[in-house]
Amino acid sequence: MTRQTSILLLLFFCSLAFGQEKLPVEYFDNIKKADAHYQSKDYKKAAFSFSSAFKSNGWKGTPNDRWNAACCWSLAKIPDSAFFNLFRLANKMQFTDINRLITDTDLNSLHADKRWQTLLEVVQKNKDSSEVNFNKPVVRQLDSIFIDDQKYRMKMEEIEKNTYLSAEQKSKEQQAIWHIISTKDAINLVKVKAIIDKYGWLGPDEIGYQGNSTLFLVIQHSDQVTQEKYLPLMREAVKNKKASGADLALLEDRILLGQGKKQIYGSQLSMDSRTGQYFLSPIEDEINVNKRRAEVGLEPIEEYVKHWGIKYKMADSYVSESSSPVRISIIIVSVIFVFLLSLLLYWLIKKRKNKKADQTADTVLDNNN
Predict the structure, then answer these.
(1) What 8-state DSSP symbol labels residue 321?
(2) How many CA atoms lie within 13 Å of 12's alpha carbon, on the beta-carbon side?
(3) What is the DSSP string of 182-213?
(4) How far is CA 346 from the centre of its chain?
């Protein structure tokens, strides 16, 4: 199912196949229901909601929704439907992300099924076909780096979702995982620096979307000095269509927060250590954040934060009074009132002048008489 890691890594994935097709309102309504059921762990209802969404669109769905449907069927322990969606992805949409297939823990219940190996072979074949002109040695190295980068972060999510662990147990296990993550990140950074220093920032046409995203991920997970060092290079890569504008936005935000400034795209969250709840880190010019997000291909912030259980409400200090519907109504009424008052004053002044003119005329007549 769509989680933090997949949101950050696979923005490009949602645009494949049906990304440009207009979907019916009913489709989106059912997708929202599916997400709500998933969050409440009612995986069977979530899966059926995905099916309703596909039915409303002639049994077509976006690749990302197909993936999420498969995850829900897997978690609901209904493997036939899970494999149906996964094979549809593999055979009709030429799905290539074998690492995502291997690492997503929502699909763990399928691993023992004999169809799993067949699925892996189909996806691997798709991947090989799409990478004919790729720098294969670098792709293989980045595949390995990607798994190291994501595997333990997904384990962190598993621990967080485990309702059987006490807060103390969760903290202890998470600390152990973070130690592994820190070690892996340091090793991955050395490897990625070597790749970038030798080849520059390689684009999707050279190492694929996942390889390209892996470069970003490792830099994103590095220290502040390294992030700032490679920021100009990534900006240039975006200009040359060798990197994602959405990925760059995330790196820009992380660097700004590291410098003690406000982020500009609203991509970075913080956690309240007392409650364990996520909240948005401060945003510069928050009233225009969705405009900036749209420019780099990010979804509206209201939808983005839902993935972390946040109901977005713009900070009062950033709310422009002129943008408030009530404020606008008051301004309109005030303008009309001033206009009418001006007309009334104009009419009174004109009437007074006319009266004075009439009095002057009467005086002249009296003198002539």
Answers:
(1) G
(2) 15
(3) HHHHHHHHHHHHHHHHHH-S--HHHHHHHHHH
(4) 57
CA distances from 196 to 110, 234, 245 (A): 37, 10, 18
Token pair 């291909």: residue: 297
pLDDT in tens, 206-248: 998 889 999 999 999 999 999 999 999 999 999 999 999 999 9
pTM exceeds 0.85, yes or no? no
C-alpha triplet 212, 15, 75: angle, nearest 5°:
90
The answer to whether residues 91 and 97 touch, using CB atoms and an 8 Å cutoff, is: no
**Cα dihedral angle (36, 42, 47, 51), rounded to 10 degrees?**
-60
- What residue spans of the chain are helical by DSSP H? 4-9, 25-39, 43-56, 63-75, 79-92, 98-103, 114-130, 136-161, 167-199, 204-220, 224-239, 245-258, 289-295, 301-304, 325-368
The Cβ of residue 197 has, within 10 Å, a number of other Cβ atoms equal to 8
State phi, psi for 99 to the nearest 5 degrees: -65, -40
